[in-house]
Amino acid sequence: MSTPSASAPAGVRALWARTGTTGLVYLALALLLVLSTVYVATQGRNLFTTANTVDLFTRSSLLGFLAIGQTLVILCRSLDLSVGYVAALSTVVAATVMAGDPARVPLGIAATLGLAALIGLANGTIVTWLRVNPFIATLGTGLIIKGYLDTNFQGPAGAVPAAFQAFGYTRIGVLPVSTLVMLVLAVAAVVFLHRSRTGYHMYAVGGDAEVARLSGVRDRVPVITAHVLCSMTAGVAGLLLAARFGTGSALVYNNGYELEAIAAVVLGGTYLLGGRGGVAGTIAGVFILATLDTVFNVLAVDPFVKDVLRGVIVIAAVAIYARGRLSRSAVRVRFPSGGPPPPAPGKDPDTGPPPPGGAGTDGARRAPAPVAPAAPVTEGGGR
């Protein structure tokens, strides 16, 4: 995203230049794991027991699905505050359509993802065609979904067959299948962003929508696509929740998943104003938050203190990124060649200052030599 200031140690600047923001986020994750392991060990406990490791991966899978889609939207300089409500609605739709019948699992998955895609299409259309601020547009969509859920579903709804519940509980060693699916989806998102035309256009629109439009990019298409994909990943998160609960739960929107997903995206180094960042960094941000949650649970930290610490970490990360961007602009060289500034528009460059030592040995600027006036012409052509 940016480079450290010139006053920073040379080693830090070299590391930043070599690894980039994504590399530094993964280094921060590795450092957090080491420090957490040491601190938990000093308390007489083991962070990486089988149960704790499974818990860490399980937490990361749900948040990862939401954060991957949120990354695509934020890269386009947009935002989606409806993902938590979409996930809640998806649990109800999936459980209701499946109705405990294994033969209806494909239909339940298709209905859930299809409805999520329609919600994303509505969000993208409102943002791009009606020019409604994405914060307001997606918050309004989320409140509509909340009102529908509160009115029609007062408790558990539907039933998820045992065959699909395996998605929420099956694991390979200590790695849950849901985490494996999340990582595969993350790789697909990285390939999409860096190998497809729409992915390039998302970065272009997020960097400067007007410049992208003047360059021939249809600026509405990437934003709408990002919102559709974001809602679909929220639908996948809803499917995972339904598999874990065994039924539909309309109240999962109370968990604040949308804000947690945005925090993971920011921790991963994606610029909130769009155009910079990526899914690879977001996955590191997801694991940072999952690691913190696991450590807090192992140490039985008070939930209020846990939220305070997580908030401080997110604010500190954003402050570091912002300081790096400001430092970069502060040390920008106006004339990289080291020479004088170019002449002002409309002036003859020949009347500008001569190069040092050109007109005199001291290199001082000299006034141009006066031009002698022409002699008057007398009658008959003589002078």
TrEMBL record:
The keyword Membrane applies. Residues 338-357 have a biased composition (Pro residues). The keyword Transmembrane applies. Residues 333-383 are annotated as: Disordered. Keywords: Cell inner membrane, Cell membrane, Membrane, Transmembrane, Transmembrane helix, Transport. It is found in: Cell membrane. Residues 366-377 have a biased composition (Low complexity). This is Autoinducer 2 import system permease protein LsrD. It comes from Nocardiopsis flavescens. The lineage of its organism: Bacteria, Bacillati, Actinomycetota, Actinomycetes, Streptosporangiales.
